[in-house]
Amino acid sequence: MSRKMQTAVVEQFGKPLVLREWDVPTPGPGQILVKTEACGVCHTDLHAAHGDWPLKPMLPFIPGHEGIGLVAALGAGVTNVKEGDRVGVPWLYSACGHCEDCLAGWETVCAEAQFGGYTRNGGFAEFILADPNYVARIPSRLSASAAAPIICAGITTYKGIKQTAARPGEWLAISGIGGLGHLAIQYGKAMGLQICAIDIDERKLAHAKLLGADCVVDARAHDCIAEVKKLTGGGAHGVLVTATSLGAFKQCVGITRKRGTCVLVGLPPGEFPIPLFDVVANCVTIRGSFVGTRSDMAEALAFAADGKVKADIELQPLSAINQVFDRLGHGDVPSRVVLDFASTWT
Ligand code: NAD
Ligand code: ZN
Ligand code: ZN
Description:
- By secondary structure, the chain is α/β, with parallel strands linked by helices.
- It has helices spanning 43-50, 100-103, 144-147, 153-164, 179-190, 202-210, 224-232, 247-254, 276-281, 294-305, 321-329, 341-345, and strands spanning 4-9, 18-23, 32-41, 67-74, 86-89, 92-94, 114-115, 127-130, 136-137, 171-175, 194-199, 215-218, 236-241, 256-264, 285-288, 313-316, 336-340.
- It folds into two domains: 4-152 and 292-343, Medium-chain alcohol dehydrogenases, catalytic domain (Quinone Oxidoreductase, Chain A, domain 1), CATH 3.90.180.10; 154-288, Rossmann fold (3-Layer(aba) Sandwich).
- The strands form four sheets. Strands 3, 4, 5, 8, 9, 16 and 17 form a seven-stranded mixed β-sheet that branches.
- Helix 11 (321-329) links the parallel strand 16 and strand 17 (336-340).
C-alpha cells in the first residue's frame, strides 16, 4: 500500500480547499522528493484557487510555491543535491534549459516552464516532488519558515526593483504593502533607494514606516498622485506595483517620474487603461516582471541570510488554510502567513 500524506487541494475553482490525504509521490528519474518544513501562502495561491487567470491549472491540484524542506529521496541520476539538503520549491518549478529564453538567462519566460503549485503540485502538502535543477538552495543561516517568503515574495520584488533601474538615492514607490510589498521596502532600502509606500490600509502604512519607508501615502486619497509627486520631487524614478486591485495600476503609471519605469508585478484579473499621452510624452517605461531566475534567487536569499531583509511571518498549521485564504482575500493578513509543517503533522 502506498504511503499517504496530508494535503490541501483545490478540487473546484472558487470553493474552499479540501484537506485530504494524497499518495506520497515517488521521484522519477531526474526528480527529487522534498519533505516540507514550511510553505508560505502567496496571494497567487488565491488567484490559482479562484481560477483567475487565462491559463488555468488542471483540477485537482495542490497549491503552494514557497515550500521549503529537506531532500528526502533522490530519483535515478540525480547528483546535484543530496538527501538532507534544505531546498525551496519555487514558482519556477522547471524550464527547458535550451530555448532562446533559457539561453538568454530568462528561464522565467520559457514556453516549457512549469509552475510550482499551479501546473505542478506544490507545497500545501507534507511532501513535494521537485526538479533539482530549479530548486532554491537555502543558506544555512536561514530557518525554513524565514526562507519561505523569500522564494516568491522576496525574489519577485528584488527582481522587480532591479527592473525599475532605479539607482541608489533615487525614489522607489511601492504600491501594495502586503506579503510582497513589505519585503520590497526592505530590499529597496538595502539597495540604497528612498521608499514611498502606498496602500489602502492604514495598518499596512504604519507597518511600512516601521520597516523604514521614507514616506507613506494612502492610495484612497483623491490627491494621491499629486501627493506622491510632491513628496518625491516630481514622481518616483522606479515604481513597483504589487497591489491586488486594478485601480492601483493606472495610479502607479501616474506617479512615475519622467523617463522613469513602472514595473507591474501584481496580477489581479483584468486589464487597466493606460493614459497614452502621458506615457508617450513623459517617455515612461511600463514593464511586466515575473518572479526571477535562479541567479536572482541566490541573490535574494543572500540578502535574507545577511539579515538585510527579514519577512514578518505568522505561523499557521496547514489545517487553517481556508481561514488564511479568507483573511488574505479581505486584506487581513498583516504580511505573510507561513504554514508550519513541523508542528502540525509530525
Ligand atoms: P497581499 O494580499 O499580501 O498584498 C496585497 C496588498 O495590496 C495588500 O496590502 C493590499 O492592502 C494592497 N492593495 C490592494 N488594493 C490596493 C490599491 N488599490 N492600492 C494600493 N494597495 C492596494 O498579496 P501578495 O502575496 O503580496 O501578492 C500581491 C500580488 O502579486 C498578487 O496579485 C500576486 O498574484 C502577485 N504576484 C506576482 C508575482 C510575479 O511574479 N509577478 C509573484 C508573486 C505574487
Ligand atoms: Zn507567489
Ligand atoms: Zn526554455
